[in-house]
Amino acid sequence: MYFETRLLHNGNEIDPVTGAASIPLYQTSTFHQQIDQPGQFDYSRSGNPTRQALENTIAKLESGCKGFAFASGMAAVSTVFLLFSRGDHLIVSRDVYGGTYRVLTRVFQRLGIESTFVDTTQIDQIIQAIRPATKAIYVETPSNPLLKVSNLRVISQLAKAHRLLTIVDNTMLSPCYQRPLLLGADIVIHSATKFIGGHSDVVAGLVVVRDKGLAEQVGRLQNDFGAILGVHDSWLLLRGLKTLQARMECSTRNAEKIALWLERHPDVKKVYYTGLPSHEGHSLHCKQASGHGAVLSFDVGNREKAEQILKRVRLPIVAVSLGAVESILSYPVRMSHASVPPVIRKRHGITDGLLRFSAGLENSDDLIADLAQAIDRKVTVSFAGK
Ligand SMILES: *Cc1c(COP(=O)(O)O)cnc(C)c1O
Hints:
The protein is an alpha/beta fold. The chain folds into 2 domains: 3-241, Aspartate Aminotransferase, domain 2 (3-Layer(aba) Sandwich), CATH 3.40.640.10; 244-375, Aspartate Aminotransferase, domain 1 (Alpha-Beta Complex). It contains 14 helices and 12 strands. The strands form 2 sheets. It has a 7-stranded mixed sheet, with helices on both faces. Strands 8-9-12-11-10 form a 5-stranded mixed sheet. Pyridoxal-5'-phosphate is lined by residues 72-74, 97, 99, 140, 144, 169, 171, 191, 193-194, 203, 205. Pyridoxal-5'-phosphate binds at residues 72-74, 97, 99, 140, 144, 169, 171, 191, 193-194, 203, 205. Belongs to the trans-sulfuration enzymes family. Its cofactor is pyridoxal 5'-phosphate.
């Protein structure tokens, strides 16, 4: 069955108790127990029918063995890192999500779990970083905000040869466009706050694992650490997932049009989008993902121009986050990467003129007209369709 069909018909869409066409909110903390005959559920930290429907759904969509829902993307990331112990070593994408970098360097390092950050688009850099204590390779592709593409098949093979786990943060594309477990990865993580929730109204995280052994380990950690997703937020994700492909297709179409338009704009120095043949990761991306997603970045040369655009745009909200029904414009140097020292930012290509755009479901002509008036002071534009 095609992905959009499986979003709606995956065996978890109807309440097994009542037949309800929407999984009910089992808003309960505990369950009455028949002392001689323990039921499936006993306490909602350990398991809840609404959360379980979501966990089973994401496991199916990512082609994994079991899914787990957490209170945020960072709760999901951190719980996965609890698989490791003092003395273990991890290899991590250099331009990993800022929160992931922070929890590794501020918390897990203190607990004796060390990380080496490398450019995972360069396989030899990964090979050079492998030590006897290395336990996993942690990758984000495409990365944020420069959309760098790492080779998931080659990295998974390399990891397997060294008995390492491959962990992939798949937030940027969602299972709609990229399924890392089918490319050899062991664990997939999502900030479901982004495309999976899709409406800028939930903070949530998801994990899907490849096999039973990992399912048992992550399941125990989820219950022991306890950073579970609440019932209502689980329900909102189940609802958001139903339209995932419709939203991804529409916002990706918008992103493609905007990227092409920006690439031709004289005030735009560079556009980063895997859908552009000029992007260095374009052909590799096309081999491991079925779409380019809604997120692109572009460089307008300097801080003044970037701030002018942020002040003048009328349609996108100016905010952190991505993957929502409404377009979101972010300014990495003052938002996601503000805590990175300017020298290091510059070395990694995150310049003062870099803006990140997450396309929403608006009409692309309206979005382009808005960007046009925001980039060019002199032009006044009337919106199409109004
Ligand atoms: C937002 C994000 C996270 C963190 O998720 P939260 O839901 O904000 O905790 C992790 N990875 C990526 C790629 C993200 O964009």
